[in-house]
Amino acid sequence: MAKNPQSTDRQPRDKAGASVVGWLLLGLVLLFGGLYVAAHYVAGDKVARNTTVSGVRIGGHPQAEAAQRLEAGLADTVNREIAATIEGKPVSIVPLEAGLSVDYETSVAEAGGKESWDPVRLWNYFTGGDSFEAEVAVDDATFQSYLAGLDEQHGATARDGAVSFDGIRIVTKKARAGAALDPDDTLASLRTAFLADEPTDVALELSDVAPDIDAGDVEEALDGFASPAVSAPVTLAFEGSNVKVFPADYTSALSLVPTDGELVPTLDAAKLTEVVGSRVTSGAPVDASIALVNGTPQVVPAKPGVTFDAAELEAGFLDAVAKPQGERTLALTAKVAKPAFTTKDARALQVKEQVSTFTTYFPYAEYRNVNLGRAAELINGTLLKPGETFSLNGTVGERTEANGFTKGYIINDGILVQDLGGGVSQIATTTFNAMFFAGLEDVEHKPHSFYIDRYPIGREATVAWGSVDLQFRNDTPYGILIEAKVTPSTVSTSGVATVTMYSTKYWDITTTEGERYNLTQEKTRRIDTLKCHPNEGFGGFDIDVVRYFSPVGANTETRADEVFNTTYTPSDTVICTNPDAVDE
């Protein structure tokens, strides 16, 4: 088949043309691509050239620089005070104090100040630019605090109504509406005036604020609870007896508490229980006791009491107190409360007779009369059950003025000094000897540091609050009743301290004392203080006292002899050398 010569000639020419077109298109792509890259390079994160924010030109500048320019351009506007009136009264508002400020970075970003390859963004940079308003930032906490200050100065606080009791009298407090600025309206007005081109007067208006507890709530509380509460007594119906409690007694336990817009009756259960407890005929149970009657121990019988369920009283009282007369009765389940220490328990202790007594004498000093008398008063009547331990410090307590004690002489570092409770060791010694001859177990006792000749040698005890105590245990199967009494001294007569113990006799006690040994010589001290008590000293020594136990009656125990060894230090002679020394 013959070839077409024209077709052969056309093919080389077509290929050449296509190549030219291809290179041309590539060149155009490269040209426009370069221009696009160059445009992006020029635009970067700059704001469109003709952009203004709140009247400040920021176009053509990178975002950070545009924000700085915006801040500088708005400086006067941001810092100017906003002229306002509240109910016609002029008020100058400092925007920053009210929590208003400008977010410059966000304002620039919203105006287009951000880097992008978007061709529309690039086109707008070179040809566009709009007017924007700056972004106003509000610190809510600062604004609310500032608003509260304006309300306090120009408004009025709403006052809740209230109802309370003063005995049988009802006390009411009227509700009062308040006035305050509306937060949303106030903020909107201030935001508008904040960046306005020209200063603008802002008229702020107060709105009424209703109290949570209004007059209607007060009236409802009066009619529904308060008035009935004081109208008549409430009858508490126990099993077999009725007890009336009167408004003057129980209104102190009632209150009306504002809760969710209402005055809600509320009961102080502890106060009411106390009131009702004082009205119950039998009262609380009374433990049995043992007392001396004409010098003889006798059992004082226990008394049962009537108790009630406090929770039952609390659950029903508010309803009962709000009811009309004739219906104000609350039925309670009465319970007989047994005493913790019964008559049978007291009799089982077999406190029947005197088992020991001891008396000491003391010279006249008013502080001794006070302190010994008070200590004896606190000890007297103590009942020590089998196995229990007596503590003088625990029974008498700290020697303070509030506890009835005064200052007197005590031994400290071998000499006499003044301190509260001076002389109480006389009672300690007397009690120790009564314990000694009752045959009780010595737990803790400490003799005086030097010998005092009005005390039995080797059988005496001192005490000091917090450090030195007299303790003994009732290790017999019977109870021990302790009687302590003091006859005050006078200028012409010695005082008398006597401690007697009553029980069922369990031991016969005898004692012997040895010879003094390890004799030591006293020293002489010269003291140059203003408070100095002169003393004529004497030597120290050791001595042994033995206690012997002989069982009595039903007692079949045997007990080894008990030796009490006492070391007395010398009582130094004290010479007061200060011419102004006062022996107090």
From TrEMBL:
- The membrane spanning regions, by residue number, are 20-43
Q: Pfam family example for this protein?
A: VanW
Q: Is-annotated flag, keyword Transmembrane?
A: yes
Q: Which UniProt keywords apply?
A: Membrane, Transmembrane, Transmembrane helix
Please name the InterPro entries in this protein's record.
Glycopeptide_resist_protein, Vancomycin_resist_VanW
> Which organism encodes this protein?
Nocardioides zhouii
Q: What is this protein called?
A: Uncharacterized protein
